[in-house]
Write a structure and sequence with these properties.
mainly beta; 705 residues
Length: 705
């Protein structure tokens, strides 16, 4: 495949096009008489028209704050954008988020790359941690918020390059019912339902549900999903609200590790080709989660919000996967393993907020506490290929027949883990959002976490303990030359303890080593051209330090070094250009480098393309008909830090046609990869590369009743 080079100048021109069009759409600009002093009223009334943007969020500061008053780059993927692009998963979401890619995740989990940092645990739902490795769905999601850069002050450990928060659909006091059916290429079948019922002025109930049974463009791959999520909201008084939620979610699929490489590029085989054993490559995930949220506003204006979430995760995956390709024999090495993880999370957050006037300045004060307990059982087994020998851990398949037909047995090797761990966190945090003057604001805060992890090696009954005291500050200064415009500078720190983001990385060697540290420096600009259209820009430097590596002068010792650095620029444009035209556009330039001693020092990080560009347009031709057109363009990237294998750059086109014959009925046709471009979407390592989907068509019908 020819490399598509993404030139920054060309991208800048493309990014400028929507702005040029704006000049021809004067009625929607800020000089249309939009009075920012009336912003509160306008935003409440006009939110329905803001299909691709929102004005505020409570996630980044735990207070209801305008996005332009938060000194941090934040991308919000709205419910309307999710619907228009027929998004179904996290991979669909991040396509249009600048500075974020999605790694393969070994074919069984979400693994976003946020500002150069790959994570499988930096996921939250309604601001509460959801950290087990699985593929999340959007059936019950109102919007998805992507926070860039470390957010340790609010969320504690992890979140080194950013985090992803899902805001779920909750029972509210506006009745509505809808069902949606999607049929598409590769036997895609998906049904969702959403029923919200108002019982009386104090009680509302809601039920969202999912059923999916789909194939794949990849041979033998399939996915089956089902879920149900009832919620209840009770308001015993005007100033008090109690919400309950329960979710049962199941995901069953084939674990697909993709294709190997050859001569520094993905192996040239049909993009449907599966390598390995289908019968021995399965993934199941079950989630049962119960949540409560209690909020009350006291007479003195103090607001208290308490969230409790208990979640039980049952996750299993097995895979027989490809390794290196031998061109002389036309064979591909294969190996395999499986892993069972059972986790129970109990998490409680309590937040107190109060608006006060001190020293002639307005303050929004936040004080909070978080208590978490995570109990995990983890068991890993190695795949043995007994047709080769009783202790053989590898075999081969040929390009003529890439499916392994021999016997595979799973049992523990000498190094396979069988652990029981308990992690506990006590976190306290304080924050002050202060209006210094008419033009200046500041956000100042700090969080202290006491994190402890106890691990029992059930194979030899040995124990390991690790304790970390983490102080995560955040400081941001905001200058507002106009009410609808802000310029900010910020600094933040986050940590990843030695137990790792999945709490399974504790060893006798690293138990006493300081946690990894992430420093983010950022300046940015946000401008709401109108109440329906926004622009944002951020320039940042993110440094990863305290990386534990083997001492090059003493193989028995571990030293801490600077690990990596990412410098970047992110641009974003979203909202309503005209009454008929909605857009979501983004551009990111990322300069990454490895900073560890050895052969990889100075190399680029894996799956961090230097340039990415995305643009989605939807235009309404009439009340009944509208159409969408999108482009995603990405320069080349390396798979991992050895920079031995390249993922070529690509440009992909998407399209959609939407028809509303009546107010409550919508029919849409989405086409992904319109030109049937062959490219490679993601990878896990040099020999686990996922070819992207060929042209795919989805027909969706949504009915409200």
């Amino acid at each position: 495949m020819a490399l598509v080079r993404v030139k920054p100048l060309s991208l800048a021109v493309r990014m400028a096009l929507p702005l040029v069009m704006l000049q021809c759409s004067a009625p929607v600009l800020a000089d249309d008489g939009w009075d920012e002093s009336k912003v509160e009223h306008i935003e409440v009334v006009g939110q329905q028209g803001q299909k691709y943007r929102v004005d505020t969020t409570t996630t980044a500061t735990k207070t209801n704050t305008l996005l332009r008053d938060i000194p941090q780059a934040i991308t919000v993927v709205t419910e309307d954008l999710i619907a228009d692009q027929s998004m179904q998963n996290m991979g669909d979401v991040v396509r249009y988020v600048p500075g974020v890619q999605m790694a393969q995740g070994e074919g069984h989990r979400d693994a976003p790359v946020l500002r150069g940092n790959t994570s499988t645990a930096d996921f939250f739902i309604n601001g509460v941690r959801d950290d087990v490795q699985y593929f999340r769905d959007l059936y019950n999601v109102k919007r998805v918020e992507v926070l860039k850069g470390p957010s340790g002050m609010i969320f504690g450990r992890g979140g080194a390059g950013g985090l992803i928060n899902r805001v779920s659909k909750q029972a509210d006091f506006s009745a509505g019912r809808e069902v949606a059916l999607t049929l598409g290429s590769f036997d895609n079948l998906r049904f969702t339902g959403d029923v919200n019922q108002v019982i009386d002025d104090q009680l509302a109930v809601r039920l969202t549900a999912l059923y999916e049974d789909s194939g794949s463009y990849r041979d033998y791959s399939e996915v089956k999903r089902k879920a149900i999520n009832p919620t209840v909201t009770f308001k015993p008084a005007t100033n008090t609200s109690v919400a309950f939620s329960f979710e049962h979610f199941e995901d069953d699929r084939i674990t697909d590790r993709g294709i190997p490489s050859f001569n520094g590029r993905p192996l040239e085989v049909d993009r449907a080709t599966f390598f390995g054993s289908v019968d021995d490559s399965t993934t199941t995930a079950e989630v049962d989660a119960f949540s409560t949220t209690i909020s009350h506003e006291f007479a003195n204006g103090v607001m208290i919000v308490n969230q409790t979430r208990y979640a039980a995760y049952d996750k299993f995956y097995a895979n027989v996967l490809p390794g290196a390709y031998n061109d002389s024999t036309k064979r591909v090495a294969i190996s395999g393993y499986n892993n069972q993880t059972d986790r129970k999370n109990l998490m409680n957050q309590t937040d107190l907020t109060k608006e006060v006037e001190l020293a002639g300045m307005n303050h929004t004060l936040l004080a909070g506490m978080e208590l978490n307990r995570q109990e995990t059982d983890n068991l890993r087994m190695t795949a043995y290929f007994t047709d080769v020998g009783p202790n053989a851990t590898a075999d081969f398949v040929t390009l003529a027949d890439t499916i392994y037909h021999g016997t595979v047995q799973y049992r523990q090797s000498a190094s396979d883990a069988q652990n029981h761990s308990v992690a506990k966190t006590l976190g306290v945090y304080l924050q002050d959002q202060v209006e210094l003057s008419a033009n200046w604001q500041a956000v100042l805060g700090a969080r202290y976490d006491h994190f402890s992890a106890d691990l029992l090696n059930q194979r030899n009954n040995s124990t390991l303990e690790s304790t970390d005291s983490l102080l995560s500050p955040r400081a941001g200064l905001i200058y507002k030359p106009r009410d609808e415009m802000s310029i900010y500078a910020s600094y933040s720190i986050a940590y990843v303890p030695r137990a790792g983001e999945q709490l399974a990385s504790l060893t006798a060697t690293n138990a006493a080593v300081d946690p990894e540290k992430f420093n983010n420096q950022e300046i940015g600009f946000k401008w709401d051209f109108s109440r329906d259209f926004s622009f944002g820009a951020a320039v940042y430097q993110l440094d990863r330090t305290n990386v534990a590596v083997t001492d090059p002068n003493n193989a028995a010792a571990t030293i801490l070094v600077d690990g990596q650095q990412v410098k970047g620029v992110e641009l974003e444009l979203n909202g309503q250009v005209t009454e008929q035209w909605q857009i979501m556009a983004g551009y990111a330039n990322q300069q990454s480098k490895v900073q560890t001693p050895g052969a990889t020092n100075g190399n680029k990080l894996g799956q961090v393309p230097e340039n990415t560009f995305s643009l989605w347009n939807r235009y309404e031709f009439s009340d009944a008909w509208s159409a969408g057109l999108g482009v995603i363009s990405q320069s080349k990237s390396y798979v991992v830090i050895d920079n031995a294998v390249v993922l070529p750059g690509f440009t992909r086109l998407d399209a959609g046609v939407f028809y509303k014959p009546m107010t409550d009925l919508r029919v849409q046709l989405n086409i992904e990869n319109l030109t049937d471009k062959t490219y490679y979407a993601s990878a896990h390592n040099n020999n686990n590369i996922t070819p992207a989907s060929p042209r795919a068509v989805r027909l969706g019908v949504n009915y409200k009743f």
